[in-house]
């Protein structure tokens, strides 16, 4: 089959951990033809989405692939399957990419479908699960989302230290800890709004109470694929820190999944299957759902290093089966 992977520039990737490269190696090992491009290489001409993509020739383990120096320009419909592996941020360029790809998603096999990537933002999916009655509000981390800090904060926001996250942030980027909600609000209220904007609005910010238990129970990454919850590991923050993301120094360990984590993961997995989402990474902290990563879920190489299943091999099996 012919595969197109749309992701970040190859030279920016870490070969020992990048999931997109793991997918490329597995597909090439089976004799499939794989092209690689970035969102900036996807464009529209004459009403038809196209891409300037470079064909991968070789990709040794723990190495970056060798690609043709001269990219080919092809219609998106020339590929059998397209895997969108562009890491967040979920910015206008990402939305543009999904809009263009969605024009052909009824004629090309996608993982995940671009219309779903636009519709289901990964920080919003937990709240969608509550709205649909899949999980309860108590199974979420209390969250105040706000872009206009002239509005008063909720009266019943939990007391004590809190954490702020950019609404469109990713991978622990921009996460900050504060002694109190008021300290955080005061800080962001002093920041300037975008130039020319006198409304007092800015990019939306998530305010959440600090979950001290993350230091010992960790942040569990649950792997969902092809309608099933398949595996998991726990990420622990560094000593004295509170951010557990592996990119920020967190450590991954295998721990038996708790009944609470298993139950909520299974319910959310069934919900994702109903939505048509094929691959995702659920973040669960002590029985509470934090995020559902569907843009470019990671951690597959770490899972194998910890002795878990080789889910990318199963991923390519799935695509081959779906394409017949």
* Oligomerization: single chain
Q: Total number of helical segments? A: 9
Beta strand %: 25-35%
> Could you estimate the helical fraction of the residues in percent?
25-40%
Distance between the termini: 10 Å
Q: What's the gyration radius in Å? A: 20 Å
Major sheet? 8 strands, mixed
Could you give the count of β-strands? 17
CATH level-1 class of the largest domain: Alpha Beta
Along the chain, the helix and strand elements come as: EHEEEEEEHEHHEEEHEHEEEHEEHH
Mean pLDDT metric:
91
- Which geometry do the CA atoms define? globular
Secondary-structure-derived class? alpha+beta
Looking at the overall shape, the CATH architecture of the largest domain is 3-Layer(aba) Sandwich
Total count of domains = 3
Kindly report the CATH topology of the largest domain: Rossmann fold
Low-confidence stretches: 195-200
Explain this structure.
With 324 residues, the chain is an alpha+beta fold. The protein has helices at 19-29, 92-102, 114-119, 125-131, 181-190, 214-217, 259-275, 300-305, 311-323; strands spanning 2-6, 33-37, 42-45, 48-58, 66-67, 72-75, 81-84, 109-111, 144-148, 162-166, 176-178, 201-209, 219-225, 228-236, 251-253, 279-285, 288-293. It folds into three domains: 2-119 and 317-323, Rossmann fold (3-Layer(aba) Sandwich), CATH 3.40.50.20; 125-137 and 213-293, D-amino Acid Aminotransferase, Chain A, domain 1 (2-Layer Sandwich), CATH 3.30.470.20; 142-209, Dna Ligase, domain 1, CATH 3.30.1490. The protein contains nine helices and 17 strands. The longest helix has 17 residues, at 259-275. It is globular. Mean pLDDT is 91; it is low at 195-200.
């Amino acid at each position: 089959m012919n595969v197109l992977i749309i992701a970040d520039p190859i030279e920016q990737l870490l070969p020992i951990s990048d999931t997109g490269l793991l997918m490329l190696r597995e597909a090439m090992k089976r004799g499939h033809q794989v092209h690689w491009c970035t969102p900036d290489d996807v464009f529209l001409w004459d009403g038809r989405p196209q891409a300037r993509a470079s064909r991968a020739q070789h990709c040794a383990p723990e190495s970056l692939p060798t690609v043709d120096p001269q990219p080919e320009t092809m219609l998106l419909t020339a590929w059998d399957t397209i895997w969108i592996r562009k890491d967040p941020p979920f910015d206008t360029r990402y939305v543009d990419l999904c809009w263009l790809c969605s024009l052909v998603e009824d004629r090309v096999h996608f993982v995940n479908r671009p219309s779903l990537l636009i519709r289901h933002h990964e920080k919003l999916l937990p709240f969608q699960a509550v709205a649909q009655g899949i999980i309860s509000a108590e199974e979420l981390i209390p969250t105040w989302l706000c872009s206009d800090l002239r509005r008063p904060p909720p009266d019943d926001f939990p007391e004590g230290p809190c954490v702020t996250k950019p609404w469109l942030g990713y991978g622990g980027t921009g996460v900050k800890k504060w002694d109190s909600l008021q300290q955080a609000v005061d800080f962001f209220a002093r920041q300037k709004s975008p130039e020319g904007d006198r409304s007092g609005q800015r990019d939306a910010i998530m305010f959440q109470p600090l979950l001290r238990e993350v230091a010992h129970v960790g942040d569990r990454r649950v792997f969902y694929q092809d309608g099933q919850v398949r595996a998991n590991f726990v990420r622990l923050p560094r000593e004295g820190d509170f951010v557990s993301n592996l990119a920020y120094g967190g450590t991954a360990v295998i721990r038996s999944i708790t009944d609470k984590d298993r139950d909520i993961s299974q319910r959310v997995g069934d919900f994702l299957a109903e939505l048509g989402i094929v691959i995702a990474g659920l973040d669960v902290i002590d029985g509470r759902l934090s995020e559902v990563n569907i843009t470019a879920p990671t951690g597959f190489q770490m899972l194998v290093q910890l002795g878990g299943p080789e889910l990318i091999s199963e991923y390519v099996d799935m695509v081959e089966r779906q394409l017949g």
